[in-house]
Amino acid sequence: MSNTNLDLDFDSCPSLAPFLGYMGVAIAIVAANVGAASGTAKAGVGIMQSGIRSPELIWRNLIPVVMAGVNGIYGLITSIILVGAISSPGNGGANTYSLYTGAAHLMAGACCGLSGLGSGVCIGIAGDAAVQACGIYDWECKKPGGRGKKGGGDKLFVSMVLIQVFAGNIALYGLIASILLSQQVYYCGQN
Question: What dotted CATH number matches 17-85+95-182?
Fold first, then answer.
């Protein structure tokens, strides 16, 4: 039997490390805004379809669009935090930004961006169905001999708001996780 010594010493601050950090920035802003855009588009179509029957409900039914737009703001917040944490090379071009920090910032961006993407899709699908249901219900109430009971649309509206808040919380959880991950830093030259 022979003893083999493994040399696990490697460059903890390679030039690749800032690239990982900037990829986290890109993932956070792009994925969160894709989620915001898809949620806005899907809910916006439902609002326009609902507005044909009940134009007075358009302003009230804008909640899904606003909630989807918040996801983009979360991505922007994370990106600003991460860009501020990525250090430039020091004097003489030495990189002090570690691979550990780059990986943490990459995962921070992924947490915020991907949770914002999922939240935006959820907000859009649920918002589209909810605003159309509110519009149809209101339209049925206005018809002579309609099936709806006046005031019942308020129950649908409250349900829609609750669904939107819980769907928006998905992105908020990602933002919180990304802020915690962005604080995990190690700079070369520290002990």
Answer: 1.20.120.610
Question: Residue 16, Cβ neighbours under 10 Å: how many?
Answer: 12
Q: Which of 23, 171, 9, 8 is nearest to 101 (CA)?
A: 23
Q: Are 36 and 120 a contacting pair, CB within 8 Å?
A: yes
Q: Concatenated DSSP letters for 26-72?
A: HHHHHHHHHHHHHHHHHHHHHHHHHHHH-GGGTTGGGHHHHHHHHHH
Query: Are 159 and 130 a contacting pair, CB within 8 Å?
Result: yes
Terminal-to-terminal C-alpha distance of the chain:
37
184 Rama sector, left if φ>0, alpha if ψ -120 to 50, beta otherwise: beta
Name the pTM for this structure. 0.84
Confidence of residue 112 (pLDDT cuts 50, 70, 90): very high
Q: Which two tokens stand for residue 91?
A: 């004097």
**CA-based nearest residue to 106, from 88, 79, 71:** 79
Which residues have C-beta within 8 Å of that of residue 115, sequence separation ≥ 6? 170, 171, 173, 174, 175, 177
Cα–Cα distance between 177 and 6 in angstroms, integer?
35
